[in-house]
Amino acid sequence: MLDKNISESHETSKPSVADELIFLANLEYEVIRTHENDFLAIPLSGPKIVKPLLGMGNTLADDLMRKYRDTCRKLPSERAVRDAIRVLISEASAKNQVQVYIRFAQIGNGIFVDLGDETGQAIHITRGTWEIIDNPPVVFRRTALTAPFPRPKAGGDFSKLFSIINIPKEQEGLVLGFIISAYFE
Questions:
Q1: pTM of the model
Q2: What is the Cα–Cα distance from 122 to 181, expressed in whole angstroms?
């Protein structure tokens, strides 16, 4: 009975601003819940770089306000934005959690390294090989400290590093291991 009354009244009434914001969000994003119980938005197209729902800077709330203003030629109220975000969080709470990684992800026998740039590309490293891929199968989260990595080039040689630092030859493997492990800690 209640469902029928709600659906009948909704069919005759204009959607609220919060409803329109939810519609806009679902056109371009999927709101997820991480294993840490954070709620983030993943773009449905383009790089899978998540963004926070609220806060300062590049957030889902900012995108929704901008899109609503561009579409409707007016700003949504703060309350409508908050209500929309709360509904999106509620919906994401009912879904499975998603693993989100910062900079590195080890999946199977490979490692994915987020290049940290606007392309969303990652380096896929497997035993003895690496390649830059456009759409990594993992979701990366970035922080204010995530700066772009330089693009790797084939044919690199660590011996050049050891020619400028004073390390005994028998210790080079240890130093190289330390440098690599520093990326993963």
A1: 0.76
A2: 18
